[in-house]
Amino acid sequence: MSYHTRDERLNTGWPRDEELLQRVPLGEQIKELVIDTIMSGELQPGERVVAKTLAARLGVSQAPVREAIRDLILLGFLENVPYKGTSVRSFTTKELRDVYAVRSALESLAARLAATRLTAQNVLALQDILDRMIQAARDHDVGQMVRQDNEFHETIIRISDNDLLCQVWQTVQFGTWTIVTARISSYDLEELARRHEALLDALKTRDPQTAMVAMQRHIEELGQWIEQS
Predict the structure, then answer these.
(1) Which end of the chain is more exposed for a tag (fewer CB within 10 A), N or C?
(2) Helices 189-204 and 120-138: crossing angle, nearest 10°?
(3) pTM of the full structure
(4) Which one is the CATH code of 6-88: 3.50.50.60, 1.25.40.10, 1.10.10.10, 3.30.70.120?
(5) Given this model, what pLDDT does residue 179 score?
């Protein structure tokens, strides 16, 4: 078997690396599109998602749309109710309480681990995300703010360097985006964004206990606000 360097591939007609990366399956593209509409608030909790309608709107066949819908159900963005069809997932008060209790436990652990591994580069990355989150809040761009919020927390999870923790967090976190996007717009978005400043300051102490307590307070307070809204 022969192998080619990148330059050889370019000279022999092989696809460029950039072209390979752009070959995203249609179902995956549709999935990302639906996630964007949920996070922007265009699709609200409880709103139906019909494969035939979505396929017609996008000008594609129903097969990749059904594939995307199946994946989104598994991720927690959508839910399928017998005799009612598929819709953007809604949460009961108990489900919200359960989700934020689990998030508090997971992310407190992540913060404790991340505090001991935090580098100067990590701090700069988190500050950059926070700056973008605050700007999105000032622009009242709820969807963008939620994306930056999620990226901030996911970055801390990655810094913790615990693969199992990351996997479990992803399962819990995805579905909550729907309810967060729908409910936080009634709050002062910049105030919500700036709550992450205290969290970053706690991480910068590199003290595991300080970081853990700050994250626990951060998550539990947000859970209480969303539950009461």
Answers:
(1) N
(2) 170
(3) 0.72
(4) 1.10.10.10
(5) 60
